[in-house]
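Handoff note, outgoing to incoming analyst
You'll be picking up this chain. Sequence as last confirmed:
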Amino acid sequence: MNVASRASQLLSSQSIGDLLNSDEAFLFDCDGVIWKGDTLINGVPQTFDMLRSKGKKLVFVTNNSTKSRRQYANKFQSLGISVTEDEIFSSSFAAAMFLKVKNFPKDKKVYVIGGEGILEELELVGYTGLGGQEDGKKTAQWKTNCLFEHDKMVGAVVVGLDPYVNYYKLQIT
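Most recent structure output, in case you need it:
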């Protein structure tokens, strides 16, 4: 039975058993699935305990780039759930891994329009990140020819959620 047809069935004792017996890993989104804000959703710890007791691999995914895997592991811990960084796959981690897999040169810098999560993940794989919230209060200063001076060592721009996006940051792209 394929995933699409399984998803369309209502959960029953039989279908839950089939699901548990057929899959080795379970992926969970974080925001709104495991927690809402800083509140754990009822039943989550028991579900994780049951899946782990059956030898299932758990992976926690999020497209929220504001935090690093370390910061997410700390959030899980604060909610009473033990999760390792290796079990977390965030968009900030994905961006850093993309650059690494593509052999982006380590001597080049990465400009970040986003939060600390991206900067931390870049640093963990050996890249120098610039920007982030630090540039949130800067203003664009164009020369008379409408050009601006920028760091010539910036070879990539990574964009994530950034409540402090501004023209200064956008001119880098």
